[in-house]
Amino acid sequence: MTTGNAPWTGLIPTEDTALACTDTGGDGTAIIYLNGQFATQGYWRRTIAELGPQWRHITFDERGRGRKSRTSSDYSLEAAVRDVDAVLAARGVERAVVVGWSYGAVVAAHWAHRNPGRAIGTVLVDGCYPYDWMDEAMEQRIRKLFKRMRPVMAALRPTGLTPRLNADEQAESNIELGWLSRADTLGPVLDAVQVPTRYVVASGTSLGSKGDEQERIRTSLTGVTARNANIEIAAKVPSNHGAILSKECRAIADATREVARLGEKSH
Question: Structure pTM?
């Protein structure tokens, strides 16, 4: 834990880009929040308010997301994991609770797996499900979806609500996530997690899913929790994937407090 930190907002240079970051400062346990694939740090405001000022909250916009983070030649998940290290190093944080939603949950699991001495605990919000949902037909479906959304994305881009990645880059990022989420790829990462980890699971659909696809994907957690005693489901909430951060901040905050308590106790 670091002490005496003043609130800070600015850009953190890393590799060929720079990341817009906000650090509330303070002497509390640090929490770093990892966004959905094309979301921004503002999505976490209700969770941060629910947890309160006794914590040190660190948020940032990933490469090419938001209004200020700069673009990059590398939008891979590996780059996203490296960016967690870059932000924590720039803010002088040695250990933190890692809270990730959707794509950010996968990044959080990879980072916690590689840094068991630095991750106090992990909260995975409706993401990081080891399930074989990606195949060649799904690749084509994803490319068509992002091509169809291109005009809307372009119109909203100046507001920071949509990323500055082009449609092809967004599609490739989503496709990479699908292949990396397959059971034989993501499963071993979760099996090796050594820190307290809690899932907050949504209900219903997510963008681009059909019927009960998303609910079937979520069933993969049965095997995850059976194999690794560090991982539990903290809550199954009624909100869908897109609304979970705005409507279920209490459940996310409760899970965060739990993993922080357990992680600090075991350290």
Answer: 0.94
